[in-house]
């Protein structure tokens, strides 16, 4: 099989989840966010075109409003998202500006990504990138409550759709797990990381949380869905642990990390 040269991946979508951005307390992991921004800024300066898909608005909103437990009712979650999105963008704007980079906010819903509307998003994305800014994308949870009510990582699918829309070369999903394992690593000490997935088979779906499996609670099933979207769009996808954002450099140094889902059966 042909080897994939990651150094040639120019337009890259990076998705970070709430678990990457916060401590177990739910409060912001300041050191990790600073490392993330510094690494992304450096990759942008190296010639990559970075698009950041970032969760975290609801968590930041909770902290800002002094709500200790995750709200059970949707309107309160919407309010947290509205307040937290301001905090999230303020944070990114301040941190990226330290490296002389501008950021732009794009709040999307699945309805905006329908065929008759997505050209507007595509045009905006391309122009923002042409102007040297970093688009920061999130689902508009204040008005689109699907993800809030399902409480599942559909920002994975959002990131995949954004990658296709932007004609990206690579999507990197930073999670709280190293990648896809052959069995649940929380239950089995002998679970082994699967480094490359050339084809998304029924077996792969089952491992990730399909029928007859209990692994879906870890959010891997939504990542497989994202991988399918990317594969159909001809885009490679990597799932990696977001614990140390500096490990993003390994991707572009062609060093093995996480699980690579290849678009064309390459390795």
From TrEMBL:
<feature type="binding site">
    <location>
        <position position="15"/>
    </location>
    <ligand>
        <name>ATP</name>
    </ligand>
</feature>
<dbReference type="InterPro" id="IPR011529">
    <property type="entry name" value="Glu_5kinase"/>
</dbReference>
<keyword id="KW-0418">Kinase</keyword>
<feature type="domain" description="Aspartate/glutamate/uridylate kinase">
    <location>
        <begin position="10"/>
        <end position="241"/>
    </location>
</feature>
<keyword id="KW-0547">Nucleotide-binding</keyword>
<comment type="similarity">
    <text>Belongs to the glutamate 5-kinase family.</text>
</comment>
<keyword id="KW-0028">Amino-acid biosynthesis</keyword>
<dbReference type="Pfam" id="PF00696">
    <property type="entry name" value="AA_kinase"/>
</dbReference>
<dbReference type="InterPro" id="IPR001048">
    <property type="entry name" value="Asp/Glu/Uridylate_kinase"/>
</dbReference>
<feature type="binding site">
    <location>
        <position position="155"/>
    </location>
    <ligand>
        <name>substrate</name>
    </ligand>
</feature>
<feature type="binding site">
    <location>
        <position position="55"/>
    </location>
    <ligand>
        <name>substrate</name>
    </ligand>
</feature>
<dbReference type="InterPro" id="IPR001057">
    <property type="entry name" value="Glu/AcGlu_kinase"/>
</dbReference>
<keyword id="KW-0808">Transferase</keyword>
<dbReference type="InterPro" id="IPR041739">
    <property type="entry name" value="G5K_ProB"/>
</dbReference>
<dbReference type="InterPro" id="IPR036393">
    <property type="entry name" value="AceGlu_kinase-like_sf"/>
</dbReference>
<feature type="binding site">
    <location>
        <begin position="217"/>
        <end position="223"/>
    </location>
    <ligand>
        <name>ATP</name>
    </ligand>
</feature>
<dbReference type="GO" id="GO:0004349">
    <property type="term" value="F:glutamate 5-kinase activity"/>
</dbReference>
<comment type="pathway">
    <text>Amino-acid biosynthesis; L-proline biosynthesis; L-glutamate 5-semialdehyde from L-glutamate: step 1/2.</text>
</comment>
<keyword id="KW-0067">ATP-binding</keyword>
<protein>
    <recommendedName>
        <fullName>Glutamate 5-kinase</fullName>
        <ecNumber>2.7.2.11</ecNumber>
    </recommendedName>
</protein>
<keyword id="KW-0963">Cytoplasm</keyword>
<comment type="function">
    <text>Catalyzes the transfer of a phosphate group to glutamate to form L-glutamate 5-phosphate.</text>
</comment>
<keyword id="KW-0641">Proline biosynthesis</keyword>
<feature type="binding site">
    <location>
        <position position="141"/>
    </location>
    <ligand>
        <name>substrate</name>
    </ligand>
</feature>
<dbReference type="InterPro" id="IPR019797">
    <property type="entry name" value="Glutamate_5-kinase_CS"/>
</dbReference>
<feature type="binding site">
    <location>
        <begin position="175"/>
        <end position="176"/>
    </location>
    <ligand>
        <name>ATP</name>
    </ligand>
</feature>
<dbReference type="InterPro" id="IPR005715">
    <property type="entry name" value="Glu_5kinase/COase_Synthase"/>
</dbReference>
